[in-house]
Amino acid sequence: MKLLEDRIREDGVVLAGDVLKVNQFLNHQIDPALMYALGQEFSRLYKEEKVTKILTVESSGIAPAIMTGLLMHVPVVFAKKQKSSTLNGGLYTAKVYSYTKQVENTIAVDTKFLNAADNVLIVDDFLANGQAVTGLLDICKLAHAQVAGVGIAIEKSFQKGADLIRDRGVRLESLARISSFEGNKVHFVGSTEND
Amino acid sequence: MKLLEDRIREDGVVLAGDVLKVNQFLNHQIDPALMYALGQEFSRLYKEEKVTKILTVESSGIAPAIMTGLLMHVPVVFAKKQKSSTLNGGLYTAKVYSYTKQVENTIAVDTKFLNAADNVLIVDDFLANGQAVTGLLDICKLAHAQVAGVGIAIEKSFQKGADLIRDRGVRLESLARISSFEGNKVHFVGSTEND
């Protein structure tokens, strides 16, 4: 998606360790019009899939997820991050390891909000090692929900997350796919503008 | 706002200790069309105010805030909750006590995203004791930003938050104002449907 690639080129900041900072428009300050455009694109890509629910994880997945839900006319559920893995009644939980923060979190969804009648579109802002999305897939499995696919704003294609998802037989659509960083430059998969 | 009051009557669950659970449509599962309607209302109420930025706090403030930002054509900034109050360079921070969870959090906003040229509309899902909004007001003060006002989805008018905000001379607009609970019934300020 050219709009998103252009915005990453313009406002993204590449830090040491292949970290891309996009807090200018995606995960601290948010550009609502851009989120709406992402929602339009996810909605277009998955329009044949009879999606019943959007699933994401707090906090930065919420903005693109809510726009997708608005445009697909379905509810959005966000998994909550919990410190402990204490089992609570009435929750589907999954463990998610954060490579960035080097901590393991438990994410949880109330069993009321996901069930076997659901066909879920998972939406998130970032895909790197795929831990968050894998946790969301685990939660869908616990709920016996179908998964229509995964929609990601920014994928770091050189990390293992994309393969992890495809290995599970799940459709993945990422709107900007980063192949590599070079200094402060971002190269995208299949882009001709890798100057 | 009748639409929101009706939804609270229909799907809200009153728990012990005057806790209203609205995780069916606001803070776990989210109804995007309702969030859009809240955004329309905040946008209408503050349309004369030359708002430059929406400020909220993760996570459940993000959905109504992003719709308000979309409709007012301004960026949204969400304050991040941090465990420690360790001073980090480049952040405006405020302490926020959560009565529900009985913990003190620090909320933080990158100094890049708020400054003296801003006229801020603070948006949040809930107003009870006013700790989160007070923290956001403190952050605006640190940034020397103007505050156009505060927009709240659900206000518990019998708790102290609303007064705390008005005592600071800040305009407050709450779309559903709860005067009391009676068993599982919710009474609203000024509503004629308190049956």
Automatic annotation (TrEMBL), chains A, B:
It comes from the Bacteria. The keyword Manganese does not apply. GO terms for molecular function: xanthine phosphoribosyltransferase activity. Pathway: Purine metabolism; XMP biosynthesis via salvage pathway; XMP from xanthine: step 1/1. It is found in: Cytoplasm. It catalyses: XMP + diphosphate = xanthine + 5-phospho-alpha-D-ribose 1-diphosphate. Its main location: cytoplasm. Belongs to the purine/pyrimidine phosphoribosyltransferase family. Xpt subfamily. PANTHER family: HYPOXANTHINE/GUANINE PHOSPHORIBOSYLTRANSFERASE (PTHR43864), XANTHINE PHOSPHORIBOSYLTRANSFERASE (PTHR43864:SF1). Homodimer. This is Xanthine phosphoribosyltransferase.
